[in-house]
Amino acid sequence: MIGPRFTTNPFDDDHLHEECAIVGIQGLPDVGAHAALGLHALQHRGQEAAGIVTSDGDQFHAHRDLGLVGDIFGEKSVIEQLEGTMAIGHTRYSTTGRPNLRNVQPLFADFEFGGLAIAHNGNLTNALSVRHDLVCRGCIFHSTTDTEVIIHLVATSTGGTVVDRMVDALRQVEGAYSIIALTKDSIIGVRDPSGVRPLVIGKLGDAHILASESCAFDIIAADYVRDVEPGELVVLDAGGVHSHRPFPAAPKRFCIFEYIYFSRPDSMVEGVSVYEARKRIGAELAREAPVEVDVVVPVPDSGVPSAIGYAHETGIPYEMGIIRNHYVGRTFIEPEDEIRHFGVKLKHNANRAHIAGKRVVLVDDSIVRGTTSSKIVEMMRNAGAAEVHMRVASPPVSHSCFYGVDTPDRDELLAAKLDVEGMRELIGADSLSFISIDGLYRAMGEPGRDADAPQFCDACFSGEYPIRLTDQENGNGNSKQLSLLADTA
Fold this sequence. Notes:
Elements: E1 17-18, E2 20-26, H1 31-41, E3 49-55, E4 60-66, H2 69-72, H3 76-81, E5 86-92, E6 107-111, E7 114-124, H4 127-136, H5 147-156, H6 162-170, E8 175-182, E9 187-191, E10 200-204, E11 207-211, H7 215-218, E12 223-227, E13 233-237, E14 240-244, E15 254-255, H8 257-262, E16 268-269, E17 272-273, H9 274-288, E18 295-298, H10 304-314, E19 322-324, H11 337-347, E20 348-350, E21 359-364, H12 371-382, E22 387-392, E23 405-406, H13 414-417, H14 420-427, E24 431-434, H15 437-443, E25 456-457, H16 459-462, H17 470-473
Parallel strand pairs: 15-25, 18-21, 21-22, 22-24
Antiparallel strand pairs: 1-23, 2-5, 2-11, 3-4, 3-5, 6-7, 7-8, 8-9, 9-13, 10-11, 10-12, 13-14, 16-17, 19-20
Helix pairs in contact: 5-6, 9-10, 9-15
């Protein structure tokens, strides 16, 4: 049985959500506090639970709990227990299934070579199949995360070193992943061969840091060095950063939605400023879908950079015509639709003085279900807007993601059910346009989308999945992601 859905903000249901963030630090004093700060900067990638495991070279120390990073690690006594100079941390966004402490990462296990903690961002698309084989071999699972599959593969490997075992384990899995692991004297970081999920390297003095995004470096005054390359495994220890290339090369397919929405705008991802990328997307959208209006209004906060780009390209004034309430917390659990729709007003309010009598173009990052979009359009009309147009800084989201992003089933995606005109009628806008997929690629510095070899993972728009969906093909499609299986406890 699938339990009720818990979200930090149940009214933010018209966006896709990343499910995890990871951070690893080697060689810093007060490493627990530094790791907690890094996770705090990455809170947008997961708000349900967080954990940190540290090593002092002899023993491991861990603290994991449900909730926000600041609540879990806000007490000095908790941080003081996280002794050592090395740490890895994880923050999680759960979707279907109750948040459960046994699923909170990093996971830890004792092996014959010593202890190993591991944390994972992404999704293994053959996790159910591998898990079934491992259970038949006598492995006992204690969580419903696909990360535990990797732990059992490491345990059953005959590799000579922990790196050999990790490589052996990852050669048996498919999917999208960025992984960090902690031994008593080193940190291992690795990205899948297609590089779908991000992982970056930073430096603070002689210490080295791994994180999902570079904004985790800024909060602790570290410098961004570079991205971990697709298929690269790095080892951080007292001797520095050691790079290995243990996997066959594969076409690079970084998730393009990281630039549209997932990553923080102040991050550098794949060497690109997310903020600048979003402004370029907005400018390209303006060239593709101009409209005669009086004011450009972003749907905050994720629509702001694209709206700035749209306004700059067109010369139309930009105004904060919608004000967001940042203090909407966990007000309801599994709200009925009418309560969820009412909740949009708890999160957004029209800035009437800049809306009344104006022709307005709203700029948002995406439309998923369409529930929020229709309420925002209605809000603009109630505030006296003469016309309400909508421009969207992504192509229509028409397919579910199986690579570590929370997306509804395809039959809940508005673009899978309606064409653009049908979507326009449903949300009540005077006009509706999305950036084209070629326009999105142009904004990212490409001449367009290479139909034979796309430069990014864009499966949520195109339906072309770059990594095999083994569990789906084997009839295990009732659960898109093993890490989201319903907990019964």
